[in-house]
Amino acid sequence: MKKALITGITGQDGSYLAELLLEKGYEVHGLVRRASTFNRGRIDHLFTDPHMVKIPLHLHYGDLSDSSSLLRILLDVRPDEVYNLAAQSHVGISFDVPEYTGDVTGLGTVRLLEALRSSKLPARFYQASSSELYGKVKETPQTETTPFYPRSPYACAKAYSFYLTRNYREGYGMYAVNGILFNHESPRRGENFVTRKITLSIARMLAGKLDCLYLGNLDAQRDWGYAPEYVEGMWRMLQQSEPDDYVLATGKTASVRAFLELCFQHAGVAVQRKGSGMDEVYVDTRSGKTVAAVDRRYCRPTDVDLLVGDASKAKRVLGWEPRTTIDTLARLMLEADCAALGVALPA
């Protein structure tokens, strides 16, 4: 039985990856941080499902800021594969905590790589890179060879991790790969990420618990896919005979505004757009109430206008392709948030 160690197992991607690897017969180990509140909601079902009572899932306390815990866990687990998904992963928040973001998202990667090198374990290593690396894009669509131009502390930390991973591969002969994943969403997305913020807020509106949703840059365009499909791509990267870096993306782009309007449509809320810039609002045509508005507090010092990836290499080498459209994704996420609040969407 293969063993895998996942940092960030309690996050969106970590939880889906754990499910995938367990289905494939792996013994899965996860790195978790000690917190004063219980933070394992995304993987709790793996322990409570009566059909998975005896699943080989083990959690270990540790932290990417603590080298000794990383080495200890590696030597205890002796994994065949290591997936580094842990990070301070919110772009907007990285402007507020740039030093912490650099420490965990950037230096955390070298601590883990160095612990793996020092342990002399022949484990294959996956580094979660990000489309935010491209920032102020130099070409469209973006590929594995497109130059980076990071535009946030988060993206800068990810650039450091990307090059460190490549350096350990070339310098020490380690099997280490970077997955440059474009935006991927799901009902397990964190509530402060824009897609989930939209679906959860609209669900609360339908439940009578919220009047208006406030957002930042509605013109930002992203390449949005479905997270469970993307973790399969991560796994496929570590099954190749030679390590390499890959872009995972849908190749299609949509603005935050388009996602917002799709969600209102699925919710059966007819809206009218009024104003522009900082004065832009969406008004419910039936009630006349403002249900969405732009708020300067959610705008970033520097923003990324357009990201859209070319995953042709992943398709050719890995046999990986995205299947879920943004329309399906919006409804899937909205349905999940509505169900949690006891609200039914229109058929």
Structure description:
- The structure is a single chain.
- The strands form four sheets. Strands 3-2-1-4-5-6-11 form a seven-stranded parallel beta sheet, with helices on both faces. Strands 8-15-14-13 form a four-stranded mixed beta sheet, covered by helices on one side.
- Helix 1 (12-23) packs across helix 8, helix 3 (67-77) runs parallel beside helix 5 and helix 9 (256-267) crosses helix 11 (326-340).
- The termini are far apart.
- The protein is of the alpha/beta class and 347 residues long.
- The chain is globular, with a radius of gyration of 20 Å.
- Strand 5, helix 6 (153-172) and strand 6 (176-181) form a beta-alpha-beta unit.
- The mean pLDDT is 93.
- It has helices at residues 12-23, 44-48, 67-77, 91-94, 98-119, 153-172, 194-206, 227-237, 256-267, 312-318, 326-340; strands at residues 3-7, 27-32, 57-61, 81-84, 124-130, 176-181, 184-185, 213-215, 221-222, 225-226, 246-248, 254-255, 271-274, 281-284, 290-294.
Index terms:
347 residues; 7-stranded parallel beta sheet; 15 strands
Strands, count: 15
Radius of gyration from CA coordinates: 20 Å
Strand fraction: 15-25%
Low-confidence runs of at least 5 consecutive residues? none
User: In which range does the helix fraction lie?
Assistant: 25-40%
Shape: globular
**What is the succession of H and E elements?**
EHEHEHEHHEHEEHEEEHEEHEEEHH
The chain-level structural class is alpha/beta
Provide a count of the helices: 11
Which whole number gives the mean pLDDT? 93
- Straight-line distance between termini: 45 Å
Neighbour order of strands in the largest sheet: 3-2-1-4-5-6-11
Largest sheet: 7 strands, parallel
